[in-house]
Write a structure and sequence with these properties.
heterodimer; A: 10 helices; 4 strands; globular; B: four-stranded mixed β-sheet
């Protein structure tokens, strides 16, 4: 008889890093227990499981902690080999995806004035590069809800958790970040992704997330005042 | 087997990560020294986004970013594995590679300082980073990989060889036997591993190269900083 797996996810409801892991667990059909952690008061467990960074999310599998969202995703993919597979089998294809995971997003939300202008320009540059780079993953030109055509993979998960809440960010800062004209491929890919039932399942309530992003922005702006 | 080429530069620790991985697995490759002050059309073709080294070219296909290259090499040539078998231990090794990518750059910030608050800040960050390695990464193991070197040891190669050069140039000592006993021993043990020992840039030449680079950088910044 198989020993029952105990899987706990320590996370924060508004964090895209936590969402990535939730998405991955749900896509694989892995039952887990979710524990909401308060970022302002790090529980003993968080300090024990992630002594180096003291951050979330943390996946605990049969008592063993795994940290950093992208590492957790790879761990999940390697441990539960059922579909969907997050990374392709071919080493070169895997390397291409891992390369794109290095590209980050930016600080449009937490800045204003000149700093925001710079962050916005950086973001548009990155989106332009991402748009170009993603073309090779969608040779047909039209987006399907995933890179490998069938299921959601690592890049899909990353895309929709990074940019999924973009409408909320746009609402908070009043800047259109993902413009269908400037980034047709990314726009249609994102729209297709956010329509997936599993995405709707994990999406936090609109008003609640809007309030959180406002709060983060206010905090960041206040703490940067000299 | 398809041809393997490595485009790198001799003073770069990132170049060496790939060299160590290839040599540890016994993979024959052609090494191409790149002149970063005059980037070759080949580099611009293979890494148009960042125009950086190292780039591994396997059967004509380029792979960029040393951490991605290490993982690629492991995927294609599983002999003498750099990653453990156990999924949890693999996740731990990957965590330290990620840490090496993000947190070790503070030693290069230190490299660029001459004194004052800027140097104190860089020194403090570097010490914290080393403390994390000592207490959480290495603990009482001989190598990050356990009894043998693994992907994390390779990722931290900078700390074993290049940091000493930075310490000499900046005049700051970070790793000492009494403050970081395990890490101190690791820097020696790592460099004793035959493949590593045979594949390190000459310390004196490296010191000269980086001294010149540092002098140029400080001169271009101007006085009063």
């Amino acid at each position: 008889m198989e020993k029952e797996d105990q899987i706990n996810l320590h996370g924060m409801w508004g964090s895209t890093f936590t969402k990535r892991v939730e998405l991955a667990l749900k896509l694989k059909g892995i039952p887990y227990e979710y524990i909401e952690e308060d970022l302002s008061y790090k529980s003993q467990l968080v300090l024990k499981y992630n002594p180096v960074h003291k951050k979330l999310p943390i996946l605990v599998h049969n008592g063993k902690p795994i940290i950093e969202s992208l590492i957790i995703l790879e761990y999940i993919d390697e441990t539960w080999k059922n579909a969907p597979r997050f990374l392709p089998d071919d080493p070169y294809e895997r390397a291409k995806i891992r390369f794109w995971l290095f590209e980050g997003v930016g600080r449009v939300v937490t800045t204003d004035g000149e700093a925001q202008e710079k962050a916005t320009n950086d973001l548009f540059e990155k989106l332009k590069v991402l748009e170009e780079g993603m073309r090779e993953f969608f040779p047909g030109g039209s987006p399907t809800p995933s890179i490998n055509g069938e299921n959601m993979g690592l890049l899909d998960i990353l895309m929709c958790t990074l940019f999924g809440p973009y409408k909320i960010h746009e609402e908070v800062v009043g800047i259109k970040m993902i413009d269908p004209e400037r980034n047709p491929l990314l726009s249609s890919w994102l729209m297709a992704l956010t329509e997936q039932p599993v995405m709707k399942e994990i999406k936090p309530p609109h008003e609640k997330l809007l309030a959180l992003v406002h709060f983060i922005r206010q905090n960041a702006l206040q703490s940067s005042v000299p | 087997m398809e041809v393997v080429k490595l485009i790198g530069t001799w003073p770069s620790p990132f170049s060496y990560r790939v060299i160590w991985a290839l040599k540890l697995k016994g993979i024959p490759y052609e090494y191409i020294e790149e002149d970063l002050s005059n980037k070759s059309p080949m580099l611009l073709q293979y890494n148009p986004l960042h125009k950086k080294i190292p780039v591994l070219v396997h059967g004509g296909k380029p792979i960029c970013e040393s951490a991605v290259i290490l993982q690629y090499i492991e995927d294609v040539w599983p002999q003498n594995p750099l990653l453990p078998n156990d999924p949890h231990e693999r996740a731990v090794a990957r965590f330290w590679v990620h840490f090496a990518e993000n947190k070790v750059r503070c030693i290069w910030r230190l490299f660029r300082t001459t004194g004052g608050e800027e140097q104190e800040k860089a020194k403090k960050e570097s010490m914290e980073m080393l403390r994390a390695l000592e207490e959480h990464g290495l603990r009482d193991k001989k190598f990050f990989g356990g009894d043998k070197i693994g992907i994390a040891d390779i990722a931290f190669g900078q700390v074993a060889h290049w940091l000493e050069m930075i310490e000499d140039l900046v005049g700051v000592k970070l790793i000492e036997a009494h403050t970081f006993p395990h890490l101190h021993a690791w820097t020696k043990n790592f460099k004793q591993v035959p493949i590593i020992k045979e594949n390190l840039p000459d310390f004196g030449e490296m010191l000269m190269y980086f001294k010149k680079a540092r002098d140029n950088f400080l001169a271009s910044r101007g006085p009063g900083m």
